[in-house]
Write a structure and sequence with these properties.
- With about 280 residues, the chain is α/β, with parallel strands linked by helices.
- About 50% of the residues lie in helices and about 20% in strands.
- Strands 1-2-4-5-6-7-8-9 form an eight-stranded mixed barrel, surrounded by four helices.
- Helix 1 packs across helix 2.
- The N and C termini lie far apart (about 55 Å).
- The structure holds ligand C2E and calcium ion (3 copies).
- The site of one calcium ion (CA) has 4 residues, from loops.
Length: about 280
Amino acid sequence: AKYDHGNGYCFFSEEMNKNATRQLELEEQLRHALIDQQFEVYFQPQFDWSRQKLTGVEALVRWNRAQGEVVPPEMFIPVVESTGQIVALGEWVLRQACLQIQQLQCQLNVPLQLSVNLSGRQFDDLSLIYKVKKILQETNFPPEQLELEITETILMENADSARKTLGQLSQQGIRLAIDDFGTGYSSLNYLNTFPVDRLKIDKSFLVNVMHDDNHAAIVATIISMADTLGLSVIAEGVETMEQVSFLSDLGCQAMQGFIFSEPLPREELEEFVQKGWP
Ligand code: C2E
Ligand code: CA
Ligand code: CA
Ligand code: CA
């Protein structure tokens, strides 16, 4: 369509210029945000339905850009991934999350599992194993209570190095989960050749599970195959009681989603742990 008008091309190029400038500004802001500690770790509860119990939390990063303005990760994770800043940010998130959850479980005497997201770039970082070990030592966080989440795509794109890295992490007692499971078209049998402990069913399947027979069948298949292969399973994006019953009937008791709680800042998580879920 840009060839239809004489001025079409110029308009397009100006737009591109604006986008590139905006991108550069964002990168620059993110560089400062890392230095000025504008990031904050939120925690979303993970719930065991059959035991009616909070079992753990997933750490999710937020950017407090200006007074009261919280930027969601979709807006900046892709940028810090492209610049490589995710390596430093990811390390910071892991340290903060271990520190805060360790503090919380000592203070309240409640054991909590902690899940932290790992990006592909962190996988390429040769010092990852060393950094994780160091953070666990510094924060006194028990390795068996830490779970690292890796997406199916990252795993498949870096199969050889991933196998090695994951092996070393799992030797430290750390658990490994495949995030956004079901979106990457890889076979569960193949994925099971990695030292994986848990599958996290992608929330896109949950959205339609009550209206879409295909999605319902996919969720049911993932749950039963995980069981066959001896893997744990957790569903994310659980928003309604219908979804809770559907999952629970299929034997998936571990759940995470807005029906239990949104991701919470540390102080609100503390309240949630003390009060419990209604
Ligand atoms: P994710 O790892 O799949 O995280 C789950 C996302 O689903 C979170 O979005 C969470 O707030 C949202 N969510 C939770 N319950 C529900 C629900 O019931 N319904 C719906 N519709 N959504 C729900 P969030 O916090 O915006 O994070 C988005 C993505 O950003 C994450 O997806 C993850 O890929 C990335 N991310 C966040 N923090 C980090 C981090 O520290 N490191 C890395 N590498 N990536 C991160
Ligand atoms: Ca995740
Ligand atoms: Ca996910
Ligand atoms: Ca995702």
